């Protein structure tokens, strides 16, 4: 049957990260020997104290509709938590809206702030869902390529080159998915100042803020004084640092009227995030004992990052990569293996890698640059070692050289 779908979906493409992940799981369930380095998802269990808080909430009957912007306890715990991460600066709990994952927080923010005729700048390579969410708001995404010399980050000059009278805002991600690069405080400040000067909305996606290999959490727009943040929306959540992807709890911190509008939008969409999961997140953000769990997971990610970097330096010295300083992604360049009649895009590189060696990674095509590949090291050391060995063998074959013994 041919169905004419709404114009709302005219640009819609399913999320490549989600599709590749689902396809990998399907292959594994069918008994195929596949190592999955595609998923942007911690391989750890949700810490016990958090899981128990969720179970307790169900047992205590916290199973009715929640307050739409989020239960008070969670908004208060999140405000305190964000404040503590940024040296005790004030954070207003009334300006927080809790949603079904940071993905919905981003969707709420874009639907609330952007619409037909608006352009939204997105530093590229960029997480797959940003351009799609902007399209769903009927605005136009404009990708701003990052500088290779600068870990594929953008600076104000690059942003300014893409700004015009229709530009309504930008979506910045740090630590960056898919590169693992991290914007310094000074870089963030320059971008915040530029956005303020041109009265643009800045959506700052800091979902990976705690997964940072420098000291403390990664720099945040919240490290800047309030008077510089007039038109800023911060996106944060429990999914990554607390290994809570399936609980679906994210949040946005926005100026009062924007928070109110996002909550009104949510009254018609979900009525609020899963109620027991919100109680679990109260423990994640509010119980200091969880800091040890976060530190333990970040340490494990750091060790795995070191393992991947060392492997590339030792065994694949010709392969360019972005120095990963946060999140759990490693972004490496494969266009030197392209050839006429052979592999010509990262998508083909990844397909062949899957077919020949059973390793799942995500092509840079999904993030706006078909010369690169994203590997997620949120996987066990055993899987990582196995996948790196297979990848190296695959690359040796492409190079036409014998694999090392
Ligand atoms: N932002 C980025 C950069 C992400 O990688 C993800 C991961 N899906 C999200 C937002 C959404 O997070 P959540 O799982 O909480 O919806
Ligand atoms: N954010 C993760 C990723 O980039 C999870 C999948 C998704 O939601 O895109 O792989």
Per-chain topology:
Blueprint: H1 16-29, E1 35-36, H2 48-59, H3 72-85, E2 96-100, H4 101-113, E3 119-124, H5 129-136, E4 140-145, H6 156-162, E5 167-173, H7 185-197, E6 201-205, E7 232-237, E8 249-253, H8 256-267, H9 275-286, H10 290-315, E9 329-333, H11 346-357, E10 359-360, E11 362-363, E12 372-376, H12 381-399
Parallel strand pairs: 1-10, 3-4, 3-5, 5-6, 6-7
Antiparallel strand pairs: 2-8, 7-8, 9-12, 11-12
Helix pairs in contact: 2-9, 3-9, 4-5, 4-8, 10-12
Glutamic acid (GLU) binds at residues 15, 17-18, 39-41, 127-129, 177.
Describe this entry's structure for a reader.
The chain has 405 residues and is α/β, with parallel strands linked by helices. It folds into two domains: 9-45 and 292-398, Aspartate Aminotransferase, domain 1; 53-287, Aspartate Aminotransferase, domain 2, CATH 3.40.640. It is 40% helix and 14% strand. Strands 2-8-7-6-5-3-4 form a seven-stranded mixed sheet, sandwiched between helices. A hairpin with an 8-residue loop joins strand 11 and strand 12 (372-376). The structure holds 4'-deoxy-4'-aminopyridoxal-5'-phosphate and glutamic acid. Glutamic acid is lined by residues 15, 17-18, 39-41, 127-129, 177.
Summarize the structure.
The chain is an alpha/beta fold and 405 residues long. It has twelve helices and twelve strands.
